[in-house]
Amino acid sequence: MNEDFVNTLLLTGKLAGWTTLILFIIGLPLAYILAYKRFFLKPVVEALISMPLVLPPTVLGFYMLVAYSPEHFFGRFLEQTFDWRLAFTFEGILIASIVFSLPFMVQPLQNGLGAIPKSLREASYTLGKSEFITFIRVLIPNMAPSIITALAMTFAHCIGEFGVVIMVGGNMPGETRVASIAIYDEVQILNYDVANQYSLVLFIISMIILTVIYSINGRKKIFF
Amino acid sequence: MLKINIEREMLTSEGTTTLKVDTQIGEKELLCLFGHSGSGKTTLMRMLAGLNKPDRGYIEFNGQVWFDSGKKINLPPQQRNTGYMFQDYALFPNMTIRKNIEFAQKEKNSREVKELLTLFGLKTLQKQYPQKLSGGQKQRVALARALASKPKLLLLDEPLSALDFEMRLTLQEEIIKAHEMLNSITLLVSHDIKEVEKLATSVILLKNGEITGQGNPNEMMKKIHISY
Predict the structure, then answer these.
(1) Alpha-carbon distance B76 to B186, whole Å?
(2) CA A56: distance to chain centroid?
(3) Residues B6 and B75 in one domain
(4) Which residues of B touch A222 (CB under 8 A)?
């Protein structure tokens, strides 16, 4: 098999894998706060997290590209402090991908936490267990379908990302050229066979992930 | 001794009302809170457990202040050490019966878990998950779990309401057993007069958020027949 083809798919998997892992670590506490805490700016935070669902990816990509620029505060700070330039790098598309996939991780987790009967949390508290112990030992084990949905949706969404990645990362083989961009590229040069191979792989992976999600969600409820 | 003097706004089907409770409950009482739906029974229990916050007043248990609005004291549920039994039993679906009981223990003690499983007839069910149990079995597990944390105060919120008549009779005995084992105060919410007569050593009558009577079950039963 063509080395370029394999490397592009591996890069796509690497981007989706890292995005999913980092978002899971960020998403769990964020979903907990949104599901159970009340605070003044909550609707604003929820709206910001959901923005990638309605915003054209190019808009987000444009803002991220501007932010990465050394002419602006964030980009200048990264360059002067860590000698990092994020535009057109893997790290750059990873951060953009994390921001863009945030709702796909947070919303299923938040819904999963919201579906757990309040009395389970309260029972744990009255038994002397802290919020953290309750989260780890009572809440997380009882929202496994939501966790699998969140991980799978984030991963699946990530492997299909196009707009943000092309804005922030361009089309650099081995660095930012993921499968969705490769498809576009191959079609541009009328190389339909390779475009078809990429498309088929993405189609099959997405189909498998969605089938897993639906089969998990179709299982009967475990609460009472 | 449990001292309660609290107020809290409540939303009922007839609008907003204020729950006002000013009372003391003596050691080793098995006290039934009796009243219609919306009279404030569950709200009072939840405030005692620290799950809801009163608008004002204080709660003191055996000399320890649990809540004092004036001094801004409000101990969280974790520090009150109550055994709260919820109407839906709130058993953890991811844990076996044995694990549910072990989870409640402050320090792991297999001998005590075994004693509780034996006392409540759960030994053969210990490896089962709560979803597989009947209502009566769940009630027993919830009681055993509440006792496993060695609570100072046992709060039972309509523990038998979801069960059929025969099961209720059997499990009323289990509640008496749990109360005797705890050797402290038990508060039980009920709106079943026969249950109150059988279980209670004293009764508080609640109506529209206010105490309309408190005393021994015989006296209160007469009042119940007249007013309820």
Answers:
(1) 20
(2) 16
(3) yes
(4) 93, 131
Single out the residue of B85, B115, B82 nearest to residue B185, CA to CA.
Answer: B82
CB contact under 8 A, B81 and A117: no
Would B88 be classed as within a structural domain? no
Pairwise CA distance, residues B47 & B27, whole Å: 19
B209 assigned to some structural domain = yes
C-alpha radius of gyration, chain A, whole number: 20
Contact yes or no for A117/A204 (Cβ under 8 A):
no
Residue of B nearest to A117 (CA): B90
Global ipTM? 0.91
Two tokens, residue A130 = 């802290």
Flag whether B87 is in a domain. no
Q: Calculate the dihedral angle through the C-alpha atoms of A38, A41, A46, A51, rounding to the nearest 10 degrees.
A: 180
CB pairs under 8 A between A and B: 60
Enter the DSSP assignment of B210. Answer: E
Residue A209 phi, psi (nearest 5): -60, -45
Identify residue B213 by its one-letter amino acid code.
G
For an interface test with A, the pick among B51, B85, B187 (most A C-beta atoms closer than 10 Å) comes out as B51
- Bridge partners of residue B213, in order along the sequence: B205
**Dist. CA A153–CA A150, nearest whole Å:** 5
Domains, chain A, with CATH or none: 3-217 (1.10.3720.10)
> A50-87, pLDDT tens digit by residue?
999 999 999 989 999 899 888 888 888 888 888 888 88
pLDDT digits (tens, 9 = 90+) for B192-224: 888 888 888 999 988 888 888 888 888 877 777
B15 in Cβ contact with B170 (< 8 Å): no
pTM summary value:
0.86
Comparing alpha-carbon positions, the chain B residue that sits nearest to A136 is B94
B126 and B176 fall within a common domain: no
